[in-house]
Write the structure tokens for this entry.
Amino acid sequence: MKPNLLSWEETLFRDQDVFDLNYVPEQFDYRDDQTQSLVFAIRPGIKGGKILDTVCRGPPGTGKTTSVKKIFDSLRETTQAILPIHVNCRIDASEYAVFTRIYTSLTKRGPPPSGTSVKQLIDMIARFVEQEQIQPLVCLDDANYLIYENQFNKVLYPLLRMHEVFPGINFGLIIIISDPGIDLQNSLEVRVQSTFHPEIIQYPPYSAREIAGILNERVKQGLYPHVLPTELLDVIIDHVMKHGDVRLGLDLIKRSVLYAEKAARKSVTEDDVQKAVDASRDLHLEMLIASLSDDECLVLKIAAELFSEETSPTTKEIMEALPAKGPKLTRISEIFKRLDRLRLIDLQYSNQGGGRRRFVHLHEDRALVLTILARREQAAD
Ligand SMILES: Nc1ncnc2c1ncn2[C@@H]1O[C@H](COP(=O)(O)OP(=O)(O)OP(=O)(O)O)[C@@H](O)[C@H]1O
Ligand SMILES: [Mg+2]
């Protein structure tokens, strides 16, 4: 074996899990203000008072989920008065799914018998809470998915009014919204607006210095010294700043190191980083597509199928090509707008040929979009 090469059993990772996307980091800097606001809202619940409702807003990868997960961990260690429940609305995107998740998390039982209505489910939840004398603290994470599916008010209303039907019962609410395009006030029905007065907690994008701090900390924890030269970490940071999501940085570091390991080198080279950057172009699109609802994927798929170098379909042509079980017509214009906001498509208006038409250009590579959509469909089967 050549000198200075990695032997079979050697690895460059001190701890590879540190780069996993679901890893909850020990070190969580730059979010003290947001954490303090959350603690302030939750604190009354420890003494049996009502937890204040909060809404956490900020673009993807700004630490919203992590800050709530860390607070939930510390609540579980310190108090029995509050029972934290985390609901991922990307997965549980309907009224029924959310209340089922709350019921199973609270009671630690299996799902309710089939045929149980939402009303019965809410009654069962309320009775359990009454009996156990606890205050559930429900985090509706990625609640934008409930808004897209028109389920948000249906979930909020019973939770906010629970104490009127069952005196003495309170629910604390943390709502996380990662779509900056959502106008919260406009998404609320009047009956919800009158009882929902949350404190809004903003999570601004991280600065380059903050991204550097976060990634440096992970590198120290996850890699052996000198594996990733500082100037190459800087290249990665520059790349992350273009997209703004810390996750991309974690992925780039992990991939670069895996390339170095594969070549049995003891440190990462510029070439490894470049290869990781090329591979991550797909990842960025994959993460974007993973964040879409099934209806949004369907519209994107049809847009991609109808799109070619020579012609772009109109919104009308796409709507006509949708299957009968597709999204309702009232939702489609919202879907086009969201796909445009995410820069998956570009909507272009034209008055040519009489009548106003909207053309849908595909922003990303057509073949890649279709491949990732097909992969997602396969994973769902
Ligand atoms: N301040 C921080 N310190 C250390 N790691 C962080 C910090 N902020 C975010 N991260 C890491 O970045 C990744 C994304 O964070 P998180 O999931 O909390 O973002 P989010 O705001 O919930 O994003 P989304 O809106 O996409 O759900 C996670 O792997 C997390 O560990
Ligand atoms: Mg999140």
The chain has 16 helices and seven strands. The chain has three domains: 32-202, 206-290, 294-380. The chain has a mean pLDDT of 92. The radius of gyration is 24 Å.
